[in-house]
Design brief:
single chain, transferase, kinase, elongated, ATP-binding, alpha+beta, 3 domains, five-stranded mixed sheet, about 15% strand, about 325 residues, two-stranded antiparallel sheet, Heat Shock Protein 90, phosphorelay sensor kinase activity, 7 helices, membrane
């Protein structure tokens, strides 16, 4: 009798030990699968049963139902997002042609002989032209943003001199920055600084950063280039009273605008487009605030610093 009880207890011990090891193995496998699913929800993966178990199967079934709901919502969101981007692209494209025509007619009218005689009419035409140019820039921002998000903005990367492009961009926008009553200073090397990029994309990045300074800067803008054997960084540093520390983490969010910039024709897309273009060229655009060096009287003023960083192009590495 004792032997029989011992045999039964041994069998039960083996059974429960097997069950414990099986469940432990199942939970480990399920945990690994859940980690893999979490890494990439776009693959439409499902949780599998490592070992047969009725109660465990109910848990897996409930998890898969929830996961399937999340994946369906993601697919709906992606579809709505693509439709939204396409609508922006279509609207932007449709607006570009009439705006170009309007600006052409305005320049034609400005060149008429009687325009120089009627001062009031001349000023009115200049205001209309300025507003039309602003609208054209806004439409261009929307168009570029929609193309970048849709993956249609294909850059042809080649060896370009970032210092030359920066000097030319600054010269082309210097008058606009001065009209904002900014004290502009620059430290840009005269010698070539080669990176892998695209001229038009770099010009857009610099333009957007300068326009941002024109809206947010209080009194000054400093542009400088730092380089070493591996990297080159372009810094755009300006003081500001219209931004706060809580704004910093949102500056690259699409359609985000500080309250001060809402009256200055901004879209909230300039920095978003600049960051996307920089990354498309293998670079990085970051921002931080700095109060160092400011006196107590200047405590309300902060220094906004944008850093555009690229890897220096090596002549021994062929362009992509």
């Amino acid at each position: 009798m004792i032997y029989f009880i011992l045999i039964v207890m041994a069998i039960l011990g083996i059974y429960f030990a097997f069950r414990y090891i099986s469940l432990l193995y199942a939970f480990r496998k399920m945990k690994q699968e859940m980690c893999d699913i979490q890494k990439d929800l776009t693959q439409n993966q499902m949780l599998h049963m490592p070992v047969p178990d009725r109660h465990l199967a109910e848990v897996v079934r409930a998890f898969n139902i929830t996961l399937e709901g999340i994946q369906k919502e993601r697919q709906k969101y992606e579809k709505r997002e693509k439709e939204f981007q396409k609508q922006i692209e279509n609207i932007s494209h449709d607006l570009r042609t009439p705006l170009t025509v309007i600006l052409g007619y305005l320049k034609f009218i400005k060149n008429k002989p009687h325009m120089t005689q009627d001062k009031e009419l001349k000023e009115t035409i200049e205001v209309i032209e300025y507003k039309a140019e602003t609208m054209k820039n806004l439409v261009a921002q929307f168009y570029e943003f929609s193309r970048l998000n849709a993956g249609d903005y294909k850059l042809k990367l080649d060896r370009v001199d970032i210092s030359r492009i920066l000097r030319e961009s600054l010269a082309g926008n210097y008058q606009v920055l001065q009209q904002s009553d900014l004290n502009v200073s620059a430290d840009i090397p005269e010698h070539p600084v080669w990176i892998l990029g695209e001229t038009a994309a770099l010009e857009r990045v610099f333009l957007n950063l300068m326009q941002n300074a024109g809206r947010y800067a209080d009194t000054c803008l400093n542009i400088r280039v730092q380089e070493n054997a591996e990297n080159v960084s372009v810094f755009f540093v300006n003081d500001t009273k219209s931004l706060f520390e809580e704004d910093i983490s949102h500056l690259f969010d699409r359609f985000y605008m500080g309250d001060h910039s809402r009256n200055q024709g901004g879209t909230g897309l300039g920095l978003t487009v600049a960051k996307s273009l920089a990354e498309e060229m293998g670079g990085a655009l970051s921002v931080h605030m700095d109060r160092s060096g400011l006196s107590e009287q200047e405590d309300s003023r902060m220094m906004l610093c944008f850093e555009l960083r690229y890897k220096v192009f090596s002549f021994f590495e062929p362009p992509c």
